[in-house]
C-alpha cells in the first residue's frame, strides 16, 4: 500500500456552487473549436455561481488556453498519464497539462476504461498524479445496465472508490470531483432519473463521509449521461447533484448554454 495522500486543507477549495463540464470527446478542429468557444464566451459570462470547464483533446489545449485565459471559463484534458515522467511513448503527463493552463482532468471515463482496459489501479494512480500536480481530478464512476438490473450498482461504484481510498486515503477526495456516469446513460439519450441519480450521489457522499466528513463536504459530485436542456432542469435541483458532465450537448452552443443556465438557476 502506498503512503496516503496528505491534503493541505486550506488549498484551492472548489468555491462554485455548481460545476458544468463540457467533454468534447474526440470532436472538433481548430475552426470549429474557435466558433464554439466564441459562442461559449458570449453566452456564459453572466453565470452567478456556476463554474464552467471545457475538456478538449490534447492538441487543442493551447487553443483553449489562448481563447479562455482571460475569461471565467476553465479548461482541462480528458485523460493523463499515471506516471510523472519517463519513457512512456504517447502519454501526456500532469505537468504537461499544467504547462497549458489546465486546472482539471477527466480520469477513468468509461469510454477509456472499456476501450483501453484501464484498471481501477491505473485510475487510482492517475488520480494521485493529478492531485500531486494541483489538477482537479474529475473521476468518472458508473455501472453497466446489467449491473443495474442485477441491483449491484452500489457494490460496483463502491469498489471503484475503494481502490482509491485503499491506496491514498479518503482525504484525497477533498476538493476533487466525482462524476456519476451510468454507462447505460452515456450517449444513449437515456438519462438516469433524478431519483436514481440522487440515490447514487447520496451513496457516494455517505461512503466518503463515513471515512472523512470534511473531504465529503468538499467533494463535488456531478451527474453525467445524456444530460440535455430539458432533463437538466430536473436533475440540477436535486440535493447532492453539484452539476453535470456533458458530452453530446456540449458540442451545441445553445443546448450547452441552456444546461449551464439550468445549473445556475438551480442554486
Ligand atoms: C460523457 O461523455 O461523459 C457524457 C456524459 O456524454 P453524453 O452527455 O453524450 O451522454
Could you describe the 3D structure shown?
The chain has helices spanning 30-43, 61-68, 94-99, 110-115, 120-132, 145-149, 153-168, 194-211, 213-217, 229-236, 253-265; strands at 18-23, 50-55, 74-77, 104-107, 136-141, 177-180, 220-224, 243-246. The chain has 267 residues and is α/β, with parallel strands linked by helices. It has one domain: TIM Barrel (Alpha-Beta Barrel). Strands 1-2-3-4-5-6-7-8 form an eight-stranded parallel β-barrel, surrounded by six helices. Strand 3, helix 3 and strand 4 form a beta-alpha-beta unit. Helix 1 (30-43) runs parallel beside helix 2. It starts with 17 loop residues before the first strand and ends with a helix. The model has no long low-confidence stretch (mean pLDDT 94). The chain binds phosphoenolpyruvate. Phosphoenolpyruvate binds next to strand 8.
Question: Any key phrases for this structure?
Answer:
binds phosphoenolpyruvate; eight-stranded parallel beta barrel; TIM Barrel; 15% strand; 267 residues; 11 helices; alpha/beta
CATH class: Alpha Beta
Separation, N- and C-terminal Cα atoms: 40 Å
Low-confidence stretches: none
Q: Which percent range fits the helix content?
A: 40-55%
**CATH topology annotation:** TIM Barrel
Percentage of residues in DSSP E strands: 5-15%
Total count of domains: 1
Structural class: alpha/beta
**Largest sheet descriptor:** 8 strands, parallel, barrel
Q: What spatial form do the alpha-carbon principal axes imply?
A: globular
Strand order of the largest sheet: 1-2-3-4-5-6-7-8
Q: Tell me the number of helical segments per DSSP (H or I, 4 or more residues long).
A: 11
Question: What is the number of beta strands?
Answer: 8
CATH superfamily: Aldolase class I
Order of helices and strands: EHEHEHEHHEHHEHHEHEH
Ligands, deduplicated: phosphoenolpyruvate
Radius of gyration: 17 Å
- CATH second-level architecture: Alpha-Beta Barrel
- Rounded mean pLDDT is 94
